[in-house]
Design a protein that fits this description.
Strand order of the largest sheet: 10-11-12-1-13-18-14-17-15-16
Oligomer: single chain
Number of helices: 16
CATH topology of the largest domain: Dipeptide-binding Protein, domain 3
Helix content: 25-40%
CATH architecture of the largest domain: Roll
Shape: globular
Radius of gyration: 25 Å
Number of domains: 3
Number of strands: 20
Distance between the termini: 36 Å
Largest sheet: 10 strands, mixed
Length: 508
Amino acid sequence: MMRIGALLVALVMLLVAAPAGAASDGQMTWAIHISLAPTWFDPAETPGIATPFMVIYALHDALVKPMPGNPMAPSLAESWTMSKDGLVYEFVLRQGIKFHNGDPVTADDVKFSFERYRGAASKMLKDRMAAVETPDPQRVRFRLKEPWPDFMTYYGSLTTGAGWIVPKRYLEKVGDEGFKKAPIGAGPYRFVSFNPGVELTLEAYDQYWRKPPTVKRLVLKVASDEATRLAMLKRGEADVVYLLQGELAEEVKRTPGLTLKPTPIVSTHWLLFADQWETKSPWADRRVRLAANHAMDRQAVNEALTLGFSRIIWSIIPQSFDYFWQPPAYAYDPARAKRLLAEAGYPNGFDAGDLWCDTPTTTMAEAFASYLQAAGIRVKVRPLERAAFFKGYQEKKLKNLVYGLSGAFGNAASRLENFVVAGGPYVYGSYPDIDGLFREQAVDLDRKRREATLHRIQQFVHDKAIFAPLWELGFIHAQGPRVAESGLGLITGWPFSAPYEDVKLKGK
């Protein structure tokens, strides 16, 4: 009897211990490569890059959004229709959906969210809109001034944040700043706490319409140093880490229990010659811009830093985008680069000033800068935190060279609108021939003709050497042994974990 009693006690002890382990499994932790900014808690301020949606996919929901297997999946809207003349888009909302505070999601919230949107392409969206109507609480109607073939690209993908819905009544009560401090959304996770520069904590919203999340708590921890992120993964302090390069990525492959997760994404990187429109700048000479393009061995940097997972596509537009045009390659030819500099009047090279980048791309920027230095283009790499970097980029405060990047969704037209065409948020200067062609294609409903026009624009961008395209990034992440589903790669082209309600820990 004593043995049986002891055995029963042991079994009881195991059963009591099991929930403690299960409870700890209810938290999944990410070590992220950028410092989170409160502006990214508000869809109204999305700046035409992918990063804010790392948070937005958890806190908020959209009428239509990219999801696994569907680049425009019905979400808060169960359906939508377009009129035959292309002037009216009508969305029917799902019944019974509520924000985290219990307020119902209505057509008024949709209209309010659109009208307060002030992020990327907000002027274009509003200039094209004749009216936003709410015939009843479950329907919202967008009336355009003229047919616009890209309306759903801008509204129903991650090109902008205009289609992500916030609660009108709550926002009017707390204001914009109050909303950033305590955001309320309709997404799968609700806001718990935010410690700037340290971590963001979110908790599952069990009434989420698609399905209740599996993991109870999500924690996004800021770890700007790459080696620190890897150490967190090895110690079990993080379950998923973003952005590992070179030797550290190789180390993951050699470490039992850790898994390397290269994620194909639509993030292109480039160098912008920001001063090319200033006549006294060396960058105003196309030969200098060509020299920079020929000076860099992109594939060597790819192999060294991203283990060959990046694609060299010679464009700022992702290869998978509609209307993509494949430019010819710039051969790695340092001798030619030096000849071009000499022809432009710089036989001994020149001091090119700063090369601005955001902190996570510092290693990449330094690698490319070393090639520029070898050709005689002397630059100093100047990293900034991501939010400050893109704010400076938008406000045209970053001079000389800018390490540009974007993982925003869309098509060739939307990427050109943001980074090439006059009036775009990241456009320092433009060219009249490109601007004129862009205006033509924007209202052209003939797909073949529009494609031909967009191809011409991309050819002009290449011929003028506005940029030095670098690569379409192969984003290398890693996950630890507790992870059953990280969410990485579930949405085609998306760089981070999503949808968050699909992430899963082993044993859950």
